[in-house]
Design a protein that fits this description.
The complex is a heterotrimer. Chain A is α/β, with parallel strands linked by helices. Helix content of chain A is 27%, strand content 25%. In chain A, helix 1 runs parallel beside helix 5. Chain B is mainly β. Chain B has a domain of 54 residues: Folate-binding fold (2-Layer Sandwich), CATH 3.30.2270.10. Classes of the chains: A alpha/beta, B mainly beta, C alpha+beta. Chains in contact: A-B, A-C, B-C. At the A-C interface, helix 2, helix 3, helix 5, strand 12 and helix 7 of A face strand 4, helix 2, helix 12, helix 13 and helix 15 of C.
């Protein structure tokens, strides 16, 4: 009957003037790293600094889709491990993260898209991650109401169905990890904005914050879309562009959409939340920015796309639109790096669209990296230096035009 | 945010008429003696503090001019 | 059921005696008519088969089908009503602590939760959003949001200043709260005053009045969106608006701030405005015996008016101890002998399915008194409708005087007026509208004047007079009463442990849930909102927003001024997807030969902005089309090919910058094939460049890049100040490609030009006259690997050329071929298609095109050259290779992986079983370590777990067909 006796999910801790590890960013990456540092590696003298409230950024603004159907083997392995962590964490944290294992369907609208799906499905299945190519009729069987006729500007040629994916309650992940981290001794400080980073003789020594200076031996920058602004405090240039990405929900309905679906050609992904709203998003404006402003343009765009793909949605109303930041890299793969020219400094950034689904697994390996100083094998593919060698990860096939994310 | 930009030819227009061309970072570096790292850094690496930056925009749905303007990424507004 | 013209579905239902409109989301509590503007989901129902329609804001039409939703059976006897008894077992966020152990049971619980959640039922086969949906894009000097007295006064002031004004009003009539108030205003009832104002606004030339039109938000730099609901006479059902305004006047008015008390969600508890409008606007007696618990003079006025209409007012409780401004109201109360209890509020509604009475308490003392009533009008005073201001990014803060959110900083060009600023005196409200209207005129400056003159509009104020008028309006407003003190009551007295005092109706969020959120450490409204759902339902922030912030500040022990409300998210009021989507035009381009190809059975596919012929007839594998090109002659419509002219003194410099080859080597009358890279050395585009005279070049790009080429050239030369002109001729010129061993013979029949191999060799470019009068550029190229001529001619002439060639080639049995045949033909030749054989991991060199690169040239600062140099010798890169697939049971397909054991070492980009070659070829990107001729590699694809298909192939040169290029030179 513990649910009837409300107690604090995480402790209100006193702000110490020095911690072994300070993590900038109270989203799921930062909280997961803190959790694993304390739980797995025994480093409990950890503070997570959050400028607003935990989960303020991308962690609370995404559409909560989780999956492992990436394009390259290195990425599939990482996300697959991440996907398998949801039930484990639910149990470990004793907090229901509400993993809804409904599967994801990516729609293909051209022969080229279907060929790309064949390559992806083969990669997934070879690595033991289930994926399946569907024809249009099978797509409509999975997602009733899809228009598979040729009335569409971009008719559906088929799909890539990925049964292990689904959706997770994003806020629950934030609170569950905060609860878990706090139980292992981590201090979580909300309303603590980092304004500067101190170094001495090539070592990080602490941060200056709105609540005063805090010393540390190791510092993790895990600030999601704000990561590049934090790195800029140290003059560190990154191949990361913070862009706004928007999402919206409709009025709530009785369940009719039982899987996640997405469409590259229409720039849409959609799922039905546990509460019955259709949560949908994907659009990104190209200019770098730190606002979280939504646009009228996109609300209309999304309506146009959805009404084509699933005509019954024409009878549905949009209730709320919002936006968050995505930290885009040119190859749409993250940067997890401890060699930044400053000892004790670690960066976990550049997750772009994929920051939510990767949170726990990134935290797990960043904790290993930060505690040992040794780069875990699985993170070798995500070094910063690949961009200085002209070796993209291939997580997306498309090439950049001007170098910034476009 | 559906903001506007000031095209030097056409005046204030909706941002969706423009293509973003990234931060201004000066002319292309000389290629003689340019190291791979210097090149890739120049191509992709940026410092993006949350403060106004000079950047390039292209008026593709209008007159077709590339121009520089200063925009605050914290507000998405042009700064005079 | 019957109703009257002008009724909403809700008012008609209420008039017909319906009191229970639906059931709540979580506890299935009966819900009634609480508001009139869709502030909660209480009256959501299925209307004409469309779920989640709000009865309060939907106008009644004859023949409507109306049904309740989220109930089992009749809403009066919902079978899930028992859930209400279990609310103690369902504290805020209870599901986070339940159902996950044992884990295998969770999917079961989850499925149950999903079924219980949601409200309306969407029929996936339903035909929704029918009728005409239009969209309009306006520019205006002033957009006024709200057609109440302040909004109308602002519109008139701005309109008479010569500005173009657009006014959005959600209701069907102008007038706001004035339109149902009868009290005397300077000798006439207020509603008459509203009518007079409305008549003037409607008559004003510069003012466009949009009623039934909800403004859904103000986006960056005053872009106002909204939608208009059409009536039966309109040609459209709904219209979506986007209006770019120079200034916005927000006069959105107020709504009741709900009073938080036990059982405050019972049917029969309603807002002041709801009861008042039922009586005055819709002519329905809202109840027989009514109790009032209010905190604002407007509530007192409403009570008196209802009393005058014959509703028995049991009592009026006013949460304010003092501060009532209106002496006349006091007099009216005592004249009517209505019991008046200052400093008191209702603490509980009595009655199970609807209100039968209530309990009144003093806010300070302990005594309580019980009354019978069948209607309980309750609020905690009025709160401003802050949505529009909030979406406009105005900075809002809690005002301890008016006890509402007030702007502390307005964005440029945004003005605020009317009762939302806390004003209550009708004269002050109108005056504030004039201040805003003239303020907008001053802001717009002289443009107002010149614009009006240019448009030939009526009299307008000069800027000087506008600012004098603005000053006068300010003086007038200052002389009038300012905002009276509001009421800061946070909740009703005596909310005990068992109380069901709702802060949010849609998500069944109670005062107790707020406390539970706090106890979990989720102690700011944004976190409580996410944890317990406050303000997440269809009513959004409206009901819960201000109260939640005040309650949480209070529970934390902070002063109420520190109350930060949750962020208001647009759209304000929910537009339907059908309306936003609009008419849904499929915008695409057709080539000049679309009709000709369609007539020959073309199957079209979308390619970028174009509709292009994929194949002709019903063989998607295009066997005959391919054979015909290889052995005879075919014609391809290549019109989407990018076609450009660049000329001027610095044209060559620009070409040298963006093309990777040495472009000095272009010669008149011949085509130079080259490519463009990006700064990463990745292939962006390829095509030919023709030198057409001094500083004058003609070049082609892939069709996908045609739209971005001008941008690309100018971007990469933007710092140089070079003098060149670049003209996009893509749409002006059509093109077609005659390919095959008989191509020359067909061409000879339609032109007098010498097209022999000697006079017109491979890679030559000539201007020739075709069909006796059409001048065309003729390029001898070989993308498909055969003798071929590409004719570029004015788009309007291309259909003529097509007919001519088809006729001339009739005895050769010339036939068209489409994109898929071209794709196979070029792949047999080993020619790449960008994006098919290239991707972000490979450079130009990796795909075997490095020979183009003029590596000595560093002066031109070629785009991509440093990257090519850096990656040239890197180990571990993917390389493009040719494959000869070994015959086996299963063939590889496009996308098949190249594997080394369990390791993925590449993938097949394009593979076809070729009739020409007699075997299956492939183009693949393979790790360098495997990318040498003679290597036997393993292929596998697995489209479904367990369905692995494996095959083997040998790496060979990708130039499978005619490797020495004799055919295209023949």
């Amino acid at each position: 009957m513990s649910w009837l006796r409300p107690s604090r999910l995480w402790r209100a801790a006193p702000l110490k003037r020095h911690y072994e590890v300070v993590i900038i960013g109270g989203g799921i990456h930062g909280l997961a790293t803190a959790y694993y540092l304390a739980r797995t590696h025994g480093i409990r003298d950890v503070a997570v600094l959050e400028s607003h409230y935990i989960g303020f950024g991308g962690s609370g603004r995404n559409t909560a889709i989780v999956r492992a159907n990436q394009r390259t083997a290195e990425n599939v392995r990482l996300y697959d491990e991440g996907l398998k962590l949801w039930p484990v964490l639910t149990d470990e944290l004793d907090f229901n993260l509400m993993f809804f294992n409904c599967g994801n369907l990516n729609l293909g609208h051209s022969e080229a898209a279907m060929n790309a799906f064949r390559m992806q499905a083969s990669t997934h299945n070879l690595l033991g991650v289930k994926s399946e190519l569907l024809d249009p009729q099978q797509c409509a069987d999975v997602i009733p109401g899809l228009d598979i006729s040729d009335r569409l500007a971009f008719p559906i040629h088929g799909g890539l169905y990925h049964p292990p994916g689904g959706i997770v309650r994003h806020d629950a992940v934030v609170w569950g990890l905060a609860k878990g981290a706090s139980e292992h001794g981590v201090h979580i400080h909300q309303g603590c904005e980092v304004r500067g980073i101190d170094t001495r003789e090539g070592r990080v020594t602490g941060v200056r914050t709105s609540l005063g200076a805090i010393g540390c031996k190791r510092l993790g920058i895990m600030a999601g879309g704000y990561g590049s602004a934090v790195a800029a405090m140290l003059g560190i240039e990154l191949p990361i562009h913070p862009l706004t990405i928007q999402a919206m929900v409709t009025h709530p309905f009785k369940p009719f959409l039982h899987h996640v679906f997405s469409s590259g050609a229409y720039h849409v992904y959609a799922n039905q939340t546990l509460k019955g709203e259709i949560a949908t998003g994907a659009h990104m404006d190209p200019q770098v920015n730190y606002t979280t402003d939504a646009t009228a343009y996109y609300l209309k765009h999304q309506a146009e796309a959805l009404s084509e793909l699933m005509p019954a949605l024409r009878g549905v109303r949009f209730m709320r639109i919002w936006s968050g930041l995505a930290d885009m890299t040119p190859d749409m793969a993250p940067i997890m790096e401890g060699e930044l020219g400053c000892d004790g400094l670690y960066l976990d950034a550049g997750w772009g669209y994929f920051g939510f689904k990767s949170g726990p697994v990134a935290g797990k390996y960043m904790a290993e990296y930060m505690s040992s100083g040794e780069r875990p094998e699985i993170l070798r593919a995500f070094q910063l230096k690949r961009f200085l060698e002209g070796r993209y990860s291939g997580e997306t096939a498309s090439v950049m035009k001007y170098g910034h994310w476009d | 945010m559906t903001f506007r930009l000031t095209c030097p030819v056409c005046g204030k227009r909706d941002v969706y008429e423009f293509t973003f061309g990234g931060q201004e970072r000066g002319p292309r570096p000389e290629q003689d003696g340019l190291s791979a790292e210097e090149h890739f850094r120049w191509t992709q690496f940026r410092l993006i503090p949350n403060e106004p930056q000079e950047e390039w925009w292209y008026h593709g749905q209008g007159c077709g001019v590339w121009f520089k303007t200063t925009r605050d990424p914290g507000t998405n507004r042009e700064v005079k | 059921m019957t109703g009257y013209a002008g009724d909403t579905v809700a008012s008609a239902l209420y008039g017909a005696g319906v009191r229970i409109f639906g059931r709540s989301l979580k506890y299935h509590r009966p819900r009634g008519l609480y508001s009139m503007e869709g502030e909660s989901a209480n009256t959501f129902m299925s209307i004409d088969g469309i779920p989640n329609e709000c009865a309060e804001t939907t106008e009644l039409r004859a023949g409507m089908a109306i049904a309740p939703q989220n109930v089992r059976g009749d809403p009066r006897r919902d079978r899930f009503g028992f859930l209400n008894a279990f609310d103690r077992l369902m504290p805020a966020g209870f599901y986070y602590h339940l159902f996950h152990r044992p884990q295998f049971l969770w999917p079961l619980f989850q499925s149950g939760l999903r079924r219980m959640a949601g409200t309306g039922v969407l029929d996936l086969q339903g035909d929704y959003g029918t009728g005409v949906r239009t969209e309009r894009y306006l520019n205006a000097d002033v957009v006024v949001v709200g057609g109440g007295p302040a909004g109308m006064a602002a519109a008139l002031a701005a309109g008479e200043s010569g500005l173009r004004v657009c006014l959005f009003e959600r209701r069907r009539q102008l007038g706001g709260q004035m339109s149902w108030r009868v009290r005397d205003f300077e000798g006439e009832p207020l509603y008459r005053r509203a009518e007079a104002l409305a008549a003037r606004v409607r008559a004003a030339e510069n003012v466009k009045v949009l009623t039934r039109s909800l403004a859904t938000g103000v986006w960056g730099e005053n872009l106002v969106t909204g939608f208009t609901v059409g009536t039966e006479d309109d040609p459209f059902r709904e219209c979506h608006w986007e209006c770019r305004a120079r200034t916005v006047v927000v006069a959105a008015g107020c709504m009741d701030r709900p009073l938080v008390f036990n059982q405050n969600d019972r049917p029969g508890v309603m807002q002041v405005g709801t009861a008042w409008r039922l009586a005055r606007t819709y002519g329905i007696r809202p109840g027989k015996s009514v109790a009032f618990s209010v905190a604002d003079d407007l509530g007192l006025e409403a009570a008196i008016d209802l009393d005058d209409l014959g509703v028995r007012v049991r009592f009026i409780a006013d949460a304010r101890e003092s501060g009532q401004q209106d002496r006349a109201v006091f007099q009216a109360l005592s004249d009517r002998a209505i019991p008046f209890f200052p400093g008191c509020a209702v603490s509980r509604a009595v009655g199970r399915k609807r209100v039968r009475g209530c309990v009144l308490r003093s806010l300070k003392g302990r005594g309580s008194r019980r009354f019978h009533c069948d209607l309980l009008v309750a609020n905690a005073g009025m709160q401003p409708r802050i949505g529009t201001l909030a979406t406009a990014n105005a900075r809002l803060a809690y005002c301890a005087h008016t006890h509402g959110y007030q702007p502390t900083e307005l964005p440029p060009g945004v003005f605020v007026a009317g009762s939302m600023t806390g004003l209550r005196d009708p004269r002050s409200i109108e005056a504030s509208g004039r201040v805003a209207g003239y303020g907008a005129a001053v802001w717009c400056g002289d443009r107002a004047k010149s614009g009006a003159r240019a448009a030939g509009r009526g009299p307008s104020l000069s800027p000087g007079r506008a600012s004098r008028a603005a000053e006068a309006a300010v003086r007038e407003a200052k002389a009038l009463p300012g905002p009276p003190a509001g009421c800061g009551i946070i909740h009703a007295p005596a909310i005990g442990r068992g109380a069901k005092a709702f802060v949010d109706l849609d998500e069944d969020g109670t005062y107790k849930n707020v406390k539970e959120s706090m106890a979990r450490g989720l102690d700011v409204p944004e976190l409580a909102k996410r944890f317990a759902g406050f303000g997440l339902g269809p009513g959004q922030y409206r009901v819960a927003g201000q109260n939640l912030a005040m309650i949480m500040a209070d529970l934390r022990g902070d002063p109420v001024e520190t109350a930060h409300a949750t962020t208001v998210r647009p759209p304000l009021g929910a537009p339907s997807i059908a309306t936003l989507a609009g008419p849904g035009h499929d915008v695409h381009k057709r080539t000049p030969l679309h009709a000709e190809q369609a007539a020959r059975g073309a199957v079209f596919r979308r390619a970028g902005p174009w509709q292009r012929a994929r194949h002709f007839g019903d063989d998607p594998s295009c066997r005959d089309e391919i054979r015909n090109v290889r052995t005879n002659v075919g014609i391809l419509d290549s019109s989407p090919l990018g076609k450009f002219r660049i000329h001027g003194p610095d044209a060559l410099k620009a070409l040298q910058r963006v093309y990777i080859s040495d472009m000095r080597k272009t010669r008149p009358g011949s085509c130079k094939y080259s490519a463009m890279c990006n700064d990463m050395g990745q292939l962006m585009d390829d095509g030919v460049v023709v030198n057409e005279g001094p500083d004058d070049y003609y070049f082609t790009t892939s069709s996908a890049r045609a739209g971005a080429t001008v941008e690309w050239f100018r971007f990469h030369t933007r710092h140089d100040g070079w003098d060149y002109n670049l003209v996009n001729l893509t749409d002006a010129l059509g093109s077609l490609n005659i390919a095959g061993p008989n191509a020359r013979r067909v061409l000879e029949r339609v032109t007098g030009a010498n097209v022999s191999n000697e006079a017109f060799p491979y890679l030559a470019c000539r201007r020739i006259t075709v069909g006796g009068g059409v001048e065309a550029r003729c390029l001898r190229l070989g993308f498909v690997g055969e003798l071929s001529f590409e004719l570029h001619a004015p788009a309007s002439c291309v259909p003529y050329l097509w007919d001519l060639l088809m006729e001339a080639g009739a005895d050769f049995r010339v036939r068209p071929f489409g994109l898929e045949a071209q794709n196979c033909l070029r792949a047999e030749k080993g020619h790449v298609i960008i994006g098919t054989e290239s991707e972000q991991r490979v450079t130009l060199t990796d795909i075997g095109m490095g020979w183009m690169w003029d590596r000595e040239n560093t002066v031109s600062k070629k785009v991509g050259a440093p990257a090519l140099r850096a990656c040239e010798r890197q180990p571990g890169r993917l390389k493009l290779v040719g494959l000869r697939v070994e015959e086996g049971a299963k063939a590889p397909r496009d996308g098949t992986l190249v594997v080394d054991g369990e390791k993925i070492v590449g993938y097949v980009c394009t593979t076809r079983s070729s009739e020409t070659l007699g075997w299956q070829y492939g183009l693949a990107l393979v790790h360098r370590e495997h990318a040498f001729p003679g290597r036997r590699i393993h292929l596998c694809h697995e489209e479904k777990a367990g369905g692995r298909v494996t095959s083997t192939a040998f790496v060979i040169s990708p130039h499978f067909y005619d490797p020495r290029g004799q055919r295209l030179r023949s």
